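Researcher: First entry.
Model:
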Amino acid sequence: MVIVGWNDTTATLKSITDTKGNTYVLATGAVTISGSLTQSIYYAKNIVAAAAGTNTVSVTFSTAAIYPDIRILETADWTRIILSMEERSHGKPRRRRTAVR
């Protein structure tokens, strides 16, 4: 999961790539606070295994973003997390709590 935030609403996130060729898909966002900040969350299913420190994630913006903040995490159970996000983004009631392992 890659969580990207930045302190403006002018720049847009163009792509997220990594050196292992994983495909990142938008889970939610871009959420903006007018004129102030933007945040998006992306995920990649079935990631290609990589030893610690051997995969580099790159985030590309449409223009220079102000104070970009990029956070990356890994979990073993994406399916429940993504379903929970999708339910909330479509206004459906949340059926269960999801813990990140």
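Researcher: Second entry.
Model:
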Amino acid sequence: MDIDPHNPNANRRGRPPGVPNKVTTRIRDAFALLVSENLDNLSIWLAAVAEKDPLAALRVITDLAEFSIPKLARSEISHEGVAAIPGEVMVVIHSKDPPKDPGAVQHPEVG
């Protein structure tokens, strides 16, 4: 959007630092309202997705979380000047029920 060069009230410096974008704020608020008004439905929908594909249900949760929880920056852990050692993180989900997918990977300590 071009600034009218003849308008003495035009803000030529843009939005000041720290002032949120109005459109982005309205969209976030609308999404938060949509989610809050459908919490019961979300549980039903998530359960239906999880029944067919638990990993897809987990992706739905993480995708929705992006709209309400700020993303954390990646961190590097070091000890006394020693660079971080790359590694793996294992997430274990404990369940009372056996997996519906016979090919699902199970941790040896879990069921």
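Model: Note on the second entry: The chain has a mean pLDDT of 76.
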